[in-house]
Amino acid sequence: MSKFVFAFLDCEFGGLDPEIHDITEVAVILTDYRLVELARREWRVNARPERISKEAAEIFGYDPELWAKAPSWGKVVEELVDFLPSDKTVVPAGQNVRMDVIFLELGFKKAGVPFPFDYHVIDLATLYYAWSLVAGETIPALSLRQSATTAGLLEGAVAHRALADAELTLDVFRHFIGRLSIREPADFVSPPAGSGAQGNA
Fold it and tell me: Could you give the domains of the chain?
């Protein structure tokens, strides 16, 4: 596993459609395979105001004057590639990280730069669900807010800033990794009907 580096990342967007909304923030926390932090960076992106919805602007606190001073997407791509280790397989990790990857893949394609991340992803929601099965807990949602609240790491709303979300995701990930225990699958997963897994009388 030493050849892997995990990029706990979070992006803020001008909306949920990568074809009509821009990335407005990117944050990456690099860890080794043991989840020990190696480095972190955060970028605001000089997104086009017309590609930021009113709802999204309110969520992440968009300030036109502040964002106007941010680097272009092309510059962010250049700095992000330089930030990632070229001699490691960089695996994206995060909460609902597929959404971030979709936006990033399209952004890199438009910038004409090869995508620097591995095609595998590690998602907190999956880990949280796996923990719920092992712990025998019922969870009402798979959101970052819910998993962080369950872990006792959050009270109230999530800030919805890229670096804060990436950091919280990593903290929650570490929390639930430390609470998984090895048990027989039959202890927490019901066998399929008619499988004969209940033994012979």
Answer: 4-177 (3.30.420.10)
Is the distance from CB of 126 to CB of 96 less than 8 angstroms? no
Neighbouring C-beta atoms of residue 46, cutoff 10 Å: 18
Contacts of 177 (CB under 8 A, 6+ apart): 35, 127
The H-or-E segment that residue 31 falls in is strand 23-31
Q: How confident is the model at residue 201 (pLDDT cuts 50, 70, 90)?
A: very low
Cα(156)–Cα(158) distance, integer angstroms: 7
Please list the residues that pair with 189 across neighbouring strands.
none
* Mean pLDDT score, 79-96: 97
> Distance of alpha carbon 39 from its chain centroid, rounded?
16
**Length of the chain, in residues:** 201
* pLDDT tens by residue, 47-82: 888 888 988 888 888 888 888 899 999 999 999 999
